[in-house]
Design a protein that fits this description.
Cyclophilin, 2 helices, alpha+beta, globular, 28% strand, 8-stranded antiparallel beta sheet
Length: 150
């Protein structure tokens, strides 16, 4: 299963790790199909580390501090699969402590500064086309839409 993450800086095609993180993938896919991510902003951009989005507090007119919101529930981490390495272009679930993820996710710039995240945050996909878009994203740029390709 794949997805197209359309941003104001270009598109990224993602391949999901359905065998390694089935519940995390299912959660992300459901949110994407429901339009949850459409119009949200990349609220955390740290060069040579990650770009992070998925917080509903970044939606136009939303109240609340960016980076503190979620879908209203939490999901468990899935850390034992074979693809649990934070390489360039990997999508991973953000959380505020083990088993507290929900909708916020990040995409890694490189492996250089992300190895400490391995088996602490659930890797659930990887950008397979358009990974250069990761480098173009700035804080406040938009996630225009996420389209799931079954």
């Amino acid at each position: 299963m794949n997805a197209i993450i359309k941003t104001n800086k270009g598109e990224m095609k993602v391949e999901f790790f359905t065998e390694d993180a089935p519940n995390t993938v299912a959660n992300f896919v459901k949110l994407a199909k429901d339009g949850y991510y459409d119009g949200l902003k990349w609220h955390r951009v740290l060069p040579d580390f990650v770009i992070q989005g998925g917080c509903p507090n970044t939606r136009e007119g939303a109240k609340g501090y960016p980076g503190t919101g979620g879908p209203g529930y939490e999901i468990n981490c899935e850390l034992t699969g074979g693809n649990q390495f934070h390489d360039r272009g990997v999508l991973s679930m953000a959380h505020a402590g083990r088993n507290t993820g929900g909708s916020q996710f990040f995409v890694c710039h490189s492996r250089k500064n992300t190895a400490h995240l391995d088996r602490n945050h659930t890797c659930f996909g990887k950008v397979i086309e358009g990974v250069d878009v990761v480098d173009l994203i700035k804080e406040g740029d938009a996630i225009e839409s996420i389209t799931i390709i079954d």
